[in-house]
Amino acid sequence: xxxxxxxxxxxxxxxxxxxxxxxxxxxxxxGYEYMPDMGHSIAYEANxxxxxxxxxxxxxxxxxxxxxxRKPVAGTVPFNATATTPGAASEFTFPVYAFDNTEEGxxxxxxxxxxNPLKAKNEDDLKKILGQGKELYNVYCASCHxxxxxGNGQLWNSGDGPYPNAPANxxxxxxxxxxxxxxxxxxxxxxGVMLSHADKLSHDERWMVIHYIRSLQAEKYDLPTANGxxxxxxxxxxxxxxxxxxxxxxxx
Length: 252
Hints:
This protein has eleven helices and no strands. It has helices at 3-21, 60-67, 103-112, 123-140, 142-145, 154-158, 173-176, 180-189, 203-217, 223-226, 235-251. The longest helix has 19 residues, at 3-21. The radius of gyration is 33 Å and the shape is elongated.
């Protein structure tokens, strides 16, 4: 036999050997792979067991321990939910917000939500509420509305923001005299270029932020003021009272 033919048959035999070593596929058996290292990642994929039986880096049991579903980190809160039942339960704001993302809904919220349902138990509790409210405000609000609530936030002053108008200045009489529904509705649905913050703040956290905004507006934000005992009549409240009086006259 000539040498070239010998090489040919040797190569053919070697090929047959390798093909045979890969195993014959059939049914649910995909057969074996030759040098599969590059075809199967040894990385763990969360919640999916992709263990490869020829993996030499860990056992199947070890792989399963890393890949299996796990309990959430302590303190994890479900999306758009609160960790516990809110302390500021309200027929308009929990468990479902009662007003649509429309101008009509906004007007209704301003008229209906006239006070903050998150009441401080004492002066120390009020300090805690305002402390948390300040922290949340500085994270989510101050960049546009300013640390003082005057609308002079860093994003507005930088000139790089997509603002057709300046952010709201909470220190104006217009905002001071507005009911809390104006603030809560904006947090829930956004306003203008401001997007909704409903998924960023829990129910009570929204009210903490509103408490803090009110403290920026007031010369003195003590316990009676925070709990609505020193409430000053606002145009919206006066309008509601006038409508109520008119209704009573109609009944008579």
